[in-house]
Write a structure and sequence with these properties.
It is globular and about 60 Å long. The N terminus is likely disordered. Helix 6 packs parallel to helix 8. Helices cover about 35% and strands about 15% of the residues. It has 2 domains: about 350 residues, Alkaline Phosphatase, subunit A, CATH 3.40.720; about 80 residues, Arylsulfatase, C-terminal domain. The strands form 3 sheets. Strands 7-6-5-4-8-1-9-10-2-11 form a 10-stranded mixed β-sheet, with helices on both faces. It has a 4-stranded antiparallel β-sheet with strand order 13-14-15-16, with helices on one face. Keywords: Calcium, Hydrolase, Metal-binding, Signal. InterPro entries: Alkaline_phosphatase_core_sf, Sulfatase, Sulfatase_CS, Sulfatase_N. This is Sulfatase-like hydrolase/transferase. Pfam families: Sulfatase.
Length: about 475
């Protein structure tokens, strides 16, 4: 009996040790999955950050991130305006494949597979915070354009989202002097509201909007950490989209600038502070080395701010709603301490459709070959490898009621585009003429014709996708 009891005890201990070993192995595997954060500014021009040579703007946290990781000098938005670009980020696919041609002209289709959906299946906690702009976020909201398609229909568990833009200071109130969209005579805000996990938010909505967003994002990260789960957080700021307003503390940082520019720069600095707060949190939790942060803007700086000289495209021509470089080329960086070599300045022609395949590549997740992607992985760039993009890419923007249909097609150093409404197709050598001052259409007619034919093939592929080829009904 004693021998049997001893054997039984040994067997029990052995089973428990195996179970503990299995749990420890599983726990280690889970904790080693890198956390991923997608940060996006709204209408931030290429020249509106310190790391792109703006000497007046105060963006120390973004500047340090650019020095500590990879700074992209040739990073493109999939479209020169918000909603289409956001669709490309989450799916790796051109917005034209999805029927999202411009702001408020559609919504994320249920059949589109997002990064959040993929990572959720991999055990990630998923959270969305800020400007969604890929569909309504209130089920009873009925408007003339768009449809109900909130982030929680697309893989996000924790959400704090607005449908579209709000003021960057006191987002529930109409800013003094603002008479554009959302303005109300009684001083309230008649535009988008914050919806927190499906219900209208009512608390902590005063002051800086970037801080309000981060106040919701950080508790989500904390909860994920407490459960020993990797997280995927999408944090899309409203800054510096109009109405752009800075609080007193941030206005005071720019005493010598015109008032409108003080508000613009002040709001950007406030956003930068919140990004710094995020990084401090990651460091305090001892997970910064296991967290990848991507940052970019959704398109170039806004038209009115460009015309007033408040915002900047840096050395480039054009702004939001245009296919010039200033409408498409945006500030961007990637940071992954101890994994990405510090101080890389890459001229790789990346774009917002590349995030999806890059994240899949990093995590060694196989792509669904049945669904065409427009993006490519830039993971080799993060590893410090010198690469040249081998595939061309196209951008577009369409509002047919206004007779607006603009395209750009970029293949290495050459770019064809219809820059603005009413223009003919132009050809530029963007390597030697990044400001697009010299149209080569008459000098290189054969190249122009070849690239235009290639663009037409891409447009046909987009059309096939959005009309049902990629979807199982």
């Amino acid at each position: 009996m004693k021998i049997l009891s001893t054997c039984k005890l040994a067997l029990t201990i052995g089973v428990n040790l195996i179970m503990l070993s299995s749990y420890a192995q599983k726990k280690t595997t889970t904790s080693n999955q890198p956390n991923i954060i997608l940060l996006m500014a709204d209408d931030l021009g290429y020249g509106d950050v310190g790391f792109n040579s703006n000497k007046k703007i105060i963006t120390p946290n973004l500047d340090l991130m650019a020095k500590s990781g990879v700074k992209f000098t040739n990073f493109y938005a999939a479209a020169p305006l918000c909603s289409p670009t956001r669709a490309s980020v989450l799916t790796g696919r051109s917005p034209f494949r999805q029927g999202i041609f411009a702001a408020h002209t559609g919504a994320m289709r249920p059949a589109e597979k997002t990064i959040a959906e993929v990572l959720k299946k991999e055990g990630y906690k998923t959270g969305f915070f800020g400007k969604w702009h890929l569909g309504w976020v209130q089920p009873d909201e009925v408007e003339s354009r768009g449809m109900y398609s909130p982030p929680w229909h697309h893989g996000y568990e924790e959400t704090f989202a607005t449908k579209s833009a709000v003021p960057t200071w006191n987002p529930t109130k109409t800013p003094e002097g603002w008479t554009g969209f959302g303005s109300e005579d009684d001083g309230s805000w008649g535009g988008s509201i914050y919806v927190h996990n499906g219900k209208p938010a009512t608390e902590n909505l005063d002051g800086d909007d970037s801080r309000i967003i981060m106040d919701r994002a950080i508790p989500f990260l904390e909860k994920s950490i407490s459960k020993d789960k990797p997280f995927f957080a999408t944090i899309w700021f409203h800054t510096p989209h109009e109405p752009v307003v800075a609080g007193p503390e941030y206005l005071a940082k720019y005493p010598d600038l015109p008032l409108a520019q003080r508000h613009y720069y002040g709001a950007i600095t406030a956003m930068d502070d919140q990004i710094g707060r995020l990084r401090a949190f990651l460091k305090d939790k001892n997970i910064e080395d296991n967290t990848i942060i991507f940052f970019c803007s959704d398109n170039g700086h806004a038209d009115p701010l460009a015309k007033k000289g408040i915002a900047s495209a840096g050395p480039f021509t054009g702004h939001k709603h245009q296919m010039w470089e200033g409408g498409l080329r945006v500030p961007a960086l990637a940071l992954w301490p101890k994994h990405i070599k510090e101080g890389i300045v890459s001229d790789f022609q990346a774009n917002t459709s590349d995030y999806f395949p890059t994240i899949l590549d990093i995590l060694n997740i196989q792509q669904d070959k049945k669904v065409p992607l427009d993006g490519v992985s830039f993971n080799p760039i993060l590893k410090g490898e010198s690469k040249v993009r081998k595939t061309a890419f196209a951008s577009g923007y369409q509002r047919l009621y206004n007779d607006t249909e603009l395209y750009a097609y970029i293949d290495g150093q050459y770019k064809i585009c219809i820059p603005e409404k009413g223009d003919e197709m132009m050809l530029f050598d963007i390597k030697n003429d990044p400001a697009e001052k010299h149209n080569l259409a008459l000098e290189k007619p054969e190249l122009l014709k070849k690239m235009m034919l290639e663009l037409e093939k891409v447009k046909e592929s987009w059309k096939q996708s959005r009309e049902g080829k990629d979807y199982q009904w």
